[in-house]
Amino acid sequence: MLLIECIYCGERDETEFDYGGEIRDKRPVDPDNLSDIEWADFIFSRKNINGIHIEQWFHSGGCRQWFNIQRNTYTNEITKVFNLKNQQIIREKN
Amino acid sequence: MKNKLNTNNSYSLFSIIKGGFKKNSVLDISMSNKTPKKSYDVLIIGGGGHGMATAYYLAKNHGITNIAVIEKGLIGRGNTGRNTQVVRSNYLWTESSLLYEHSLKLWNNLSQDINFNVMYTKRGVFSLAHSYQEARDVARRVTANKLNGIDSIYLTPKEIKEYMPIINISSNARYPIFGASLQKRGGIVHHDAVAWGFARRLNQIGVDIVQNCEVKNLIIKNNIINGITTDQGDIFANKVAVAVAGSSTRFAEMGNFKLPIESHPLQAWVSEPIKPILNPVVMSNTVHAYISQAEKGELVIGAGIDKYIGYSQRGSFNVIENATSAIIELFPCFSKVKLLRTWAGLVDVSPDACPIIGQTSIRNLYINCGWGTGGFKATPGSGYVFAHTIANDQPHILNEPFTLDRFTSGKLIDEHGAAGVAH
Question: B170 and B181, same structural domain?
Answer without folding.
Answer: yes
